[in-house]
Task: inverse folding
């Protein structure tokens, strides 16, 4: 086990790496703001929270974004799913938890297949309980979440009661603004067919269940924590293009916010920081697995939303950049593993 001072240095390097604002989207401002608020490494704080989940507990996760809702509700984007799958895998290996992954019914098959490529076999809650008890299978439980406000509120209450999650984790999951509108980074309303999972996260925060959130733009769950900075530094952060009168910033906050130039990179860094804490290299999100997940996302029709095409670029960053980030995260933590 690495000593605390080394872990802190590695955490800070992971933070710096994934927050180089290669997309010119203003994430550096959000990074600085979040670091000041949280008083240290964002990636490190996320890894601490995830590793603090009780052995055998339950974690609710969400990712997925209906990318071109005004054309079809069946199309999701490829930033989010591979990162979520990487963190889910690390969590299952490190803490033997049940991970319940929530998304729209329309995106569920694609995200399920990405999780499966990350090593997690999709099962029911009852089956996951058996697998957890005898530690014979790494699993994921996929469940659809309501895409209407009222149904979302009902489902959120039910899930908090029945699942009793120990922690909630979100990456690249769009949340509503102060007027209840879900905005794209171009400031348009694209709430159609979108799961209202942010309602569940608000409820968790209200009840004191820890929430960890990853985002790269300002319109995601968790960014409520740095709302003023989203308004000041992100295009359409102040005034959107839809006419609702607000900006694109999501109102839902979190306990630990991780910013990154690409949300998937934030998740890659979190998995690396978890590997250090567990002293277990199996938790790393390797370049080899990232390549597999990129291919899986293409095969499942998840879109590179920046270019409006299904390919293995994510957020407009080419394939090699994602493999490189995974390699650099691995290199950073290698001296502790
Ligand atoms: Zn608007």
Result:
């Amino acid at each position: 086990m690495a000593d605390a001072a080394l872990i802190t240095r590695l955490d800070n390097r992971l933070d710096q790496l994934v927050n180089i604002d290669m997309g010119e989207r203003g994430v550096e401002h959000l990074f600085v703001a979040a670091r000041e608020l949280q008083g240290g490494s964002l990636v490190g704080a996320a890894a601490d929270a995830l590793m603090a989940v009780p052995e055998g507990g339950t974690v609710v996760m969400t990712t997925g974004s209906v990318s071109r809702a005004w054309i079809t509700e069946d199309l999701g984007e490829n930033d989010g799913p591979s990162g979520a799958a990487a963190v889910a895998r690390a969590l299952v290996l490190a803490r033997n938890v049940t991970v319940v992954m929530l998304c729209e019914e329309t995106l569920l098959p694609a995200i399920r297949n990405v999780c499966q490529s990350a090593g997690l076999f999709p099962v029911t809650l009852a089956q996951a309980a058996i697998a957890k008890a005898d530690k014979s299978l790494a699993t994921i439980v996929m469940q659809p979440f309501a895409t209407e406000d009222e149904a979302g509120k009902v489902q959120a209450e039910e899930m908090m009661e029945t699942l009793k999650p120990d922690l909630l984790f979100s990456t690249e999951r769009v949340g509503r603004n102060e007027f209840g509108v879900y905005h794209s980074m171009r400031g348009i309303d694209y709430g159609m067919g979108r799961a209202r999972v942010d309602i569940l996260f608000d409820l968790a925060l209200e009840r004191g269940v820890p929430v960890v959130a990853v985002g790269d733009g300002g319109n995601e769950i968790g960014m409520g924590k740095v709302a003023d900075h989203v308004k000041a530094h992100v295009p359409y952060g102040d005034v959107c293009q839809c006419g609702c009168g607000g900006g694109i910033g999501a109102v839902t906050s979190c306990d630990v916010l991780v910013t990154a130039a690409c949300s998937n990179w934030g998740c890659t860094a979190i998995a690396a920081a978890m590997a250090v804490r567990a002293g277990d290299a199996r938790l790393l999100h390797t370049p080899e697995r990232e390549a597999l997940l990129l291919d899986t996302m293409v095969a499942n029709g998840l879109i590179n939303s920046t270019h409006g095409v299904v390919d293995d670029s994510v957020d407009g960053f080419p394939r090699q950049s994602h493999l490189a980030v995974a390699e650099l995260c691995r290199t950073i933590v290698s001296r502790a593993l």
Q: What stands out?
A: The chain has twelve helices and seven strands. The domain at 4-336 is CATH 3.90.1640.20 (inorganic pyrophosphatase (n-terminal core)).
